Hints:
Largest sheet: 7 strands, parallel
Shape: globular
CATH superfamily of the largest domain: Glycogen Phosphorylase B
Number of domains: 2
Helix content: 40-55%
Number of strands: 15
CATH topology of the largest domain: Rossmann fold
Radius of gyration: 22 Å
Strand content: 5-15%
CATH class of the largest domain: Alpha Beta
Structural class: alpha/beta
Amino acid sequence: MNAPNDFRPRPGFDGWPRRIAILSDYVRLPYANGATFATQFLYRELTRRGHEVTIIGPRDPDAKPADLPERHICLPSLPLRNHPGVYLPMPLEGILREKRDWNFDVVLGQTASNLMELGLWLRATRGIPLLAVNTVHVPSVYPVVMPESLQDSKAAHWIFQKSFLRIADRASSSAYNSTDGLIVLSEGLKRYWVERGVTVPIHVIPRCVEPKIFDTAPGADPFPKGFRPGARILVVCRHTREKGVERLLEIFARYIVPAVPDATLTLIGDGPDHDLFRSTAEALGVRERTHFPGEFPVTALPTWYRHADLFAYTSLSETYGQVVSEALWSGLPVVAFADGMGVSQQVEHDVTGMLVEPGPDAEMADWRFARAAVSILRNPRKRQTLAAQAASRARDRSAPHKMLERFLDAFGAARDHRDAAPPPPANPHLAAALHGGRWAFINGLVYGLGHLRPPAVVNRHGRRQPNWNDLPEVPARRPVTQARLG
């Protein structure tokens, strides 16, 4: 049942690309981040295959040598004030000087910041093929930078949507069309960017689940005493408004608890709205039925998934939803709102879980969501069937070797696109001014916006995520279906 983990060269493989650069928003991972987990996986497995992989990202003053990948370039950076541990790379200290030795075969831009300009500059001046990865759904996350005082203002949201979002979409589309290909994580996002004028090749590559982490023997039951097996609902996410946690808490209090008296809700994660969610649970009268254990290393999550009974997800902002993939892989049925993006691509209705339309009547949608959750909790046999199918389908869809092969195919397609439409000769000084100027302006603007909200508390327990090199060797366990159903 386990996906093969021995990546052998494909027929006709010519050793290209030998030198791969990955633009990343983190060189040290201060808290859980799905895009960087995916980058770490690519770094480890491509390196194991013999590729020379260099991580390029912002300098983190808290990073120790053991936190850094073997091959890395740390750029000057500014701290994002409202998100401690996040740094914005800046084109300072002559980063775009032509004399720098940027001799990569291909660049992968897995970044949500304007670090992408570095890849665009390398393509324009060196002809290096560039692939971009879309990791953020901007219409869903812009409230993160809005001041708290404007969160309930319809006028403020209208202004942001008509100005900020349109500018962001146009800028992203223009940047993507200057690359040699765009990688998205779901068919829904492919449609989204096609509608916004992206014309370069678009590759749909779902993220994988690492068997080294998730095919492990579950540890001791981590749930609090009194959280009865058979009625445990779990959600794992960053604790910000965009994830819909307040909506989930209200669904739980209004509809699920009255129908399933023993039902409990465990919310793993941390973030700027963590305290808000705790107070919401208190106000709804379900504080004793909810558990907020904080953020955990990704290596600790399998035990939580394996001892839970249902994974509930109300977020509508996921470009993919890595935690949904992990839950399914672990044999945990999922009830989620259909987002038309990453979650909808993963959850098969009435096969691996239940998908519920989030509207147009929000109250009726909440009731349908609760009804789906209650139907699974009340029916152990149905839950077991969904669990077995969830594990099987996730292994077929999220197998690591499939993800890696798709990336290698995308690298080759990027080279072909570059060869078919090579960038015109660029004046190095003008190119540095253009890309460096845009880079400094956008990241400088984000730095300023970071002062609109007070600093968030993230990963308050200080639990350390694995770094680039120290993924532990963990004991294997029995296949999911046997362990869960036996």
